[in-house]
Amino acid sequence: MRPTRLAVTAALLVSVSACSGGESASTFYSIGTGGTGGVYYPLGGALAAQLSAVDSTARYTAEVTGGSVENVNRVVAGQIDLGFTLAISAYEAYHNGIDGGAPASDLRIVAPLYPNLVHVLAGEGSGIESVADFAGRRVSVGSAGSGTEQTAQQILAAHGLTYDDLSVQYLSFSESAAALRDGALDAAILSVGFPAAAVLEATTAGGVRLLALDGPGRDALLEAHPYYDTGSIPSGAYPGVDAPIPTVAMNNWIVGSAGLDASVVGHLMTLLQDSPDALVRVHEMARQIDLAKLGNAPIPLHSAAERFAPGG
Hints:
Layout: H1 5-19, E1 27-32, H2 40-54, E2 58-63, H3 68-76, E3 82-86, H4 87-96, E4 107-123, E5 138-140, H5 147-158, E6 167-169, H6 173-182, E7 187-192, H7 197-205, E8 208-211, H8 215-224, E9 229-233, E10 245-257, H9 262-274, H10 277-280
Parallel strand pairs: 1-2, 1-3, 5-6, 5-7
Antiparallel strand pairs: 3-10, 4-7, 4-8, 4-10, 9-10
Helix pairs in contact: 2-9, 5-8, 6-7
């Protein structure tokens, strides 16, 4: 594992402490999460604290990042040790490479996280009934280069659309909600765990509704990309949702390199298996972490994670 700048700096600080009679040096590991307003960062921070408490030989730090794509890129580059990511970002990097480069064959699944559901939102007065109606409209596809943007591109393609067919807006979840509410946007695609604060904000204020993602478009998406599954937004999840809304789901994962120390993986998986309540107290989405998902990982498992998989 190549040391990160954080690891080098921290190691030097610990060395000075050791020379002054302090505790012996520890190995430092960095965890790439997401923005401070999302789910990744609080979960990553809680996980870093728990891992530091149970692993006496190491210290773990959660880093604020741009999310899935950045985390995968930085794990592959050796700049961070663990990264939170959507399945799509891990799959595409492993099989197709990053920015036209060689496939990231050293990338591995370390642990499962919770599932995302795709939320398709439209303004009440937009006249939009499905993704097929997005042509010529102002549509947010998430932050540029994010896992949500990757997802949005594939959803559009499954409905026979490209960016050339619409006015693309690169907005965060909260920015999308505000723009929809203010009439500055016609529709938005969000890949996020539920209930999502931005969706709750938009639907509570009124003038914004959730659309179904089903029919031939969803069928084409599921057939083309193995990391999607059918899903539904439950009745009552948001204001105005009086019946389940069909959509697609995609799991989130923690990735690392094949050379990541097996003890790190073991500590992480043991925490998820034996002490999930500590994460649930930080965010309700942690309740949906299911180790059985290791049996359906989008890329190969780290060797130390294999024993936690079904049949392992």
